[in-house]
Design a protein that fits this description.
The structure is a single chain. The chain is α+β, with helices and mostly antiparallel strands. The chain has 2 domains: 4-132, MutM-like, N-terminal (N-terminal domain of MutM-like DNA repair proteins), CATH 3.20.190; 146-265, Helicase, Ruva Protein, domain 3 (Orthogonal Bundle), CATH 1.10.8.50. The protein has helices at residues 4-16, 45-52, 129-132, 146-154, 160-165, 175-184, 198-217; strands spanning 29-34, 40-42, 57-63, 66-71, 75-79, 85-90, 99-105, 109-114, 121-125, 254-258, 261-265. α1 packs across α7 (198-217), α4 crosses α7 and α6 (175-184) crosses α7 (198-217). The radius of gyration is 20 Å and the shape is elongated.
Length: 277
Amino acid sequence: MPELPEVETIARNLRLGTSEQPTLLGETISSGMVLWEKTLAYPSIPEFSVNITGQHIEDITRRGKYLVILMGDATLLFHLRMSGDLVVEQAGERIATHHRLLLNLESGLRLAFNDPRKFGRVWLTPNPEMVLGELGPEPLDEQFTAADFFQRLHQKHRQLKPLLLDQKFLAGIGNIYADEALHLAYLHPLMPSDMLSLQQADVLLTGIRQVLQEGILRNGASIDWVYRGGDFQNYFRVYQRTGEACFRCGTPIQRIVVGQRGTHFCPSCQLSPDSSV
C-alpha cells in the first residue's frame, strides 16, 4: 500500500509535472467517467458527473495517505489503498483494463485512476473534513512537537507498532516506515506506548521524520508491481530483511506478526520490553 512518501511523490509529480508529463495545475475538467461504481464513495455517479464538469484544478496536495485535488468549490480525494495509482495520459488512448475512474481535461489530457485490486476509493465533496476529519496529526508538521507526541502516546496503552499504523493517531505511516522508524529509535514494536519517556518519544518522532523525509527524497519505495518509480527499498534497514545482518550490530533481523502485519526488527538493538519476545 502506498504510504505517505509514495502519495507525496504522486501529488508532487501531478502538481509540478515531470519530464514525461506537464503539471495539472490550471487544468479544467471537461468530463468525468466512473468505470467501476464502487470506486466512487461519494457522491452518486450522476451527481459526480454533473459536479466534476468544469472544475478548475487549483492545487494538488496530500493529507495522510489521501491525495487531495483542490478545485473551485469542491475537493477531490483519492485513497489509493492496496494498488491505486494516478496516471496522466492522452484522452484518446485506449482505456486500460484496470482504469476505474477517468477525468478528461480540456487540454486533451486525461487523469486516470488505475486500481487493479479495486480497493481504492474516490470522494468529490465541498467539505473534505467529512473524510479527513478523524485523521491524526501530520508527522512532518513542524507545529507537532515531541511533547505533543509524548502526550498522545501516554493517552493510549497500546503496542507501538499497531499504534503507529492507526491513522487516527498519526496520519500517513504504514508498515514500511513504522518498522524503519522503530529501528532508528531503538524501540521494540511491542513496547507499550505509555512506557516511553519524553526523550524516547522525541527520538521516535525524529526517527519517523527521518525515514519519511528520506522516503520522499527517494520518491518512495518500489517493492512490488503496484507502485514503481522510487528506490527507497534499496535503503531499508530492517523491512523485508529477515535473516540479514543489522547494519548497526550484525544481529540477524527477525520478523514477527503484530496485528496481522509482518513486522521486522533487530532483537539486539530493539530489546523486548519484557525480554520474552
